[in-house]
């Protein structure tokens, strides 16, 4: 199975990591400039790259693309032709702004399985909002049961919303 991963930070890359660990050929497509924001996420670092980034992106191949540039868009469309699955974790409408929405991608590959990871789903009143672990913990009330009595809420040590 060939998977194209247009995802960054934790939740989307965790999905790709699990598929890669199970034997899928996962190609991580990072943004230009800068790559996945998780590269500089936090300590510890190995050769200047954050350990969480390295963990979430093990067993993957990678390429960097500028989807705002016609050449980057064309490269993605060529890659989609031979992919089985595409995962992404952009806010709703982001790929459409680049002319790369599901309708365009599925026209290139009608059998493509499209997986969108988002904080609030793709429909409903919060569907266009960005989400990540800390927001999900607060929104779900998880932080109200962590920490010490009489003190402010505390996030969990691990990004439980992103990796579960």
Summarize the structure.
This protein has helices spanning 11-21, 51-56, 70-81, 94-97, 102-108, 133-140, 160-163; strands at 2-6, 25-31, 45-46, 49-50, 60-65, 85-88, 113-116. The chain is built from seven helices and seven strands.
What this model shows, in words?
The protein is of the alpha/beta class and 164 residues long. The protein has 2 domains: 2-128, 3-Layer(aba) Sandwich (Rossmann fold); 132-164, no CATH class. 32% of the residues lie in helices and 18% in strands. The chain is built from 7 helices and 7 strands, in the order βαβββαβαβααβαα. The protein has helices spanning 11-21, 51-56, 70-81, 94-97, 102-108, 133-140, 160-163, and strands at 2-6, 25-31, 45-46, 49-50, 60-65, 85-88, 113-116. Helix 1 (11-21) links the parallel strand 1 and strand 2 (25-31). The longest helix is centred in the middle third of the chain and has 12 residues, at 70-81. The two termini are 23 Å apart.
């Amino acid at each position: 199975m060939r998977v194209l991963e247009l995802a960054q930070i934790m939740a989307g890359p965790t999905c790709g990591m699990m598929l890669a660990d199970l034997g899928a050929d996962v190609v991580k497509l990072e943004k230009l400039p800068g790559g996945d924001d998780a590269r500089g996420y936090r300590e510890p670092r190995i050769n200047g790259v954050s350990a969480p980034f390295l963990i979430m992106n093990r067993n993957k191949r990678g390429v960097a693309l500028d989807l705002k540039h016609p050449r980057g868009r064309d490269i993605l469309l060529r890659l989609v032709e031979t992919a089985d699955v595409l995962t992404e974790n952009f806010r709703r409408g982001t790929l459409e702004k680049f002319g790369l929405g599901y309708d365009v991608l599925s026209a290139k590959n009608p059998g493509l399985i499209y997986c969108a990871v988002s904080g609030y789903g793709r429909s409903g009143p919060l569907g266009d909002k960005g989400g990540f672990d800390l927001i999900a913990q607060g929104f779900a009330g998880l932080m109200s049961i962590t920490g010490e009595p009489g003190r402010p809420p505390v996030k969990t040590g691990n990004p439980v919303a992103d990796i579960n």
